[in-house]
Amino acid sequence: MSGRKQFDVTAALDRAMHVFWQRGYADASLEALTSATGLGRGSFYGAFGGKDALFRESLDRYAATYGARYEQALAAHPGEPVRAVEAFFDVVLARIADPSVPTGCLIAQSATQAPVLKDDNAAHVRMLLDRQRERVRAALADSPADPSVLDELATYVVAVNQSLAVLSRAGATDAELRTVVRLACRTVADSLDRAAREQPPQA
């Protein structure tokens, strides 16, 4: 093996993930993917099994990378659901501002292309969105609000997150995105306060 260049699967996967992230599934051509990974077609199929399999791997790589950061932020403020949501959005804004990665969000980008995805890939995207919602919902669990209210707020937070990704790709400024986040956090806080006040008194 001396003198033979070793293939770094993780590095190649990261580069392919960036192609899907920047271009979307539909426009991520085989030529672009092989160029990014540095593989010929035969080696590309041998390493990743094809575009669809690589797309799912890229989604999982993205979800693992940023999902861990989301979990850490959401778990850092037990008993403080609003602060947890603020920390979650801090991670989102940091990702958007990172010049080393494409703008937006790979999952949001993929969700907008769900009609052209194969069924299993579209289902995979939805599963990752559901997982994000579950993380946020868990961070809200300490609130005394009715579970249905917390379910709705978790969905709302994820929807705002996806909106931030779309706005950033459209050229929204950091100040504009932070305004959206500030209003979203205020909505969460107001909703939780109102729900707490409406709770019946304990016997």
From TrEMBL:
Residues 29-48 bind DNA. Pfam families: TetR_N. The keyword ATP-binding does not apply. Keywords: DNA-binding, Transcription, Transcription regulation. Gene3D superfamilies: Tetracycline Repressor, domain 2. Residues 6-66 form the HTH tetR-type domain. InterPro entries: DNA-bd_HTH_TetR-type_CS, Homeodomain-like_sf, HTH_TetR, Tet_transcr_reg_TetR-rel_C_sf. The keyword Transcription applies. PANTHER family: HTH-TYPE TRANSCRIPTIONAL REGULATOR YJDC, TRANSCRIPTIONAL REGULATORY PROTEIN. This is TetR/AcrR family transcriptional regulator. It comes from Streptomyces spinosisporus.
